[in-house]
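Table S7 (text form). Paired inputs.
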Amino acid sequence: MVRLLVVDTETGGIDPETHSILSFAGVVWNDGEIEAELDLKVVEPLLAVTVQAMQINRISLVDHAVGAVTPQEGAKKLATFLRKHFGAELKAGSKVALAGHNVGFDIGFLKRLCRLGGVSFNELFSHRSLDTSSILRFMGLAGRAPLQGAGLEEALQHFQIVIPEPLRHTALGDARGTAELLNKLISLERVVDEQDKRPNTTARGASRPRAKPGAKKATAPATTIARRTRR
């Protein structure tokens, strides 16, 4: 199983070319288990934030500055973390594959962190990524996940994934939640795959029964996010 770095960011706006990255979190995902995690609060020398973004992320810049690191320090911590937990892959010439929810947004700000911190993004990270939002949209088209949209909040509620306070709406909490969402989506596909492999016991020539449109589908039991490590 390929290991992934599931990431999330909190930012001062939506444009990584203009707005500041405020926090970054990544969890090392390996076959459904979280092996390690990194949580960084970042304070850029010149902050660029919007009122709307700060209302959404609910970050107090005064409190945020306590314990925050510069982009240079953050990028160095990130590179050290990757070499520790993805060392074998990097030495073999492979690069770290990223995953996230609307992961393109987070990748843009991760590139900003690397650029400001003097670390090469392309030397560490693969150009390939996995987006749970895109997976959900596909499953919605296939009728396997009856969601109105592909937002993380709606997805977590649908799959009964609980992010406990005070991690809710933080980069680390959302990274953990996205990792658990990925587990749920994989489990759902495995169930469908097993159903497809069962022998067809209907009469010859008869079609297999299908669920009626709009029928309520069973949901997985609630999951509370907590760090899980291999034993």
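Next pair, protein 2 of 2.
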Amino acid sequence: MVDPQDKRTSPPARDANTLPREISSRDHAARLLAAPAALVQLNPVEAKIVVSYMRPEKVPAGVTFITEGDAENTGFMVLLLDGEVVVESITVSRTEPVTTAVLGPGSLVGEMGLLDTGPRSASCTASTDIQCAVMTRQALESLIEEQPAIGAKFLLAVSARIAERYRDTQKKLKLFARLASTMQAELDKQP
């Protein structure tokens, strides 16, 4: 789906017949990017500028476009515009993935890959045909160079989203630890 070497910072030029649809798609993407489900820290004007550095993509249903453990194809994130994505992860002592989330329009996918070069932490599969806007690491670098204030605000917003997910994961781990402890206590009571 995404070529990490692609240095384009905006979608390819369209002919005059498709211009109104592209403008409305960009406006839609900017509204979603500035919405609470994504990066509420961006105002609509800033979101439109960020979207101008993204490129549109379509992914057919059933295609896994991010694969857990992949250390090669990491330099991008996706803003879902339409459709649903299933996020799955292989957990400790399991061989089958566990669905950790089902994401819809306005959701960000793969944002950690935009910021670091580590392997992907989960797999993402289009459960329906999806339309999305892709931000590559190269496009992010261009945004920071050309629009430093907006680039910094965008990075802070993405970082806040990652921190929010981290805190949610920590809460889940604490709950799991309490459940495991309670289960072990019940097992210890058995003769």
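The radius of gyration is 19 Å.
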